[in-house]
Design a protein that fits this description.
With about 190 residues, the chain is mainly α. It has a domain at about 60-194: Ferritin. The chain is about 70% helix and about 0% strand. It is built from five helices and no strands. The longest helix is centred in the N-terminal third of the chain and has 31 residues, at about 1-30. The radius of gyration is 27 Å and the shape is elongated.
Length: about 190
């Protein structure tokens, strides 16, 4: 009987030690890696049952239209940028085209990830881009880039301000800054061609 009591008490001490170790490790981890305080979880609902997948917040029709247009426009910017790299006459136009390819590819990938997280399919087909006269390519391309970025800037600012999905609004606001830089550079490059 003493032996059973002794084994049970030793077993209890081991369990108590393991429990304390788990608690200390968790507390230490929370101190080293605190949860992000983004405000994203302020209205969070309880976690879904084990095995159930959380449903992404439904996108409004306006958000879906914006995402489709942004995806199409972004792919078009990349394709036209490639064309400018190949057909541009001036170094400034070629460099502008290269920047469009690089930065719009990044923005497109971010949008694709965002859409995938929202379970929303974006168009992926290759864009048929506008053809420009070879002799006047630089001027036509840069005029189109100024006009296109002015239109895009208004659309992205509107989505950042009035969109219903917070993640999409944040992406639109971030991308608005890129578009502002592109518009300024497009105007500057265009002015050098006159």
């Amino acid at each position: 009987m003493k032996n059973k009591f002794r084994i049970l008490s030793q077993f209890g001490i081991v369990l108590l030690g393991l429990g304390s170790l788990c608690f200390a490790t968790t507390a230490s981890a929370v101190q080293q890696y605190p949860p992000l305080r983004t405000g994203a979880n302020t209205n969070a609902s309880p976690a879904p049952a084990k095995g159930a997948k959380a449903a992404p917040a439904a996108l409004s029709d306006k958000d879906k239209t914006f995402m489709k247009n942004a995806a199409k426009g972004g792919m078009e910017e990349v394709e036209m940028g490639k064309m400018a790299e190949q057909q541009g006459q001036s170094t400034d136009v070629k460099n502008f085209g290269k920047r469009m390819v690089t930065e719009h590819t990044i923005a497109n990938n971010e949008l694709m990830q965002l859409a995938a997280g929202k379970k929303f399919a974006l168009p992926k087909e290759k864009m048929n881009v506008e053809k420009f006269n070879a002799a006047g390519f630089d001027k036509e391309y840069m005029a189109d880039m100024v006009k296109d970025h002015q239109k895009d800037l208004a659309e992205f600012q509107n989505e950042a301000k009035t969109g219903s999905d917070p993640d999409l609004k944040a992406w639109a606001a971030k991308t608005t800054e890129m578009i502002k830089k592109h518009l300024a550079l497009a105007k500057q490059t265009q002015s050098k061609l006159k």
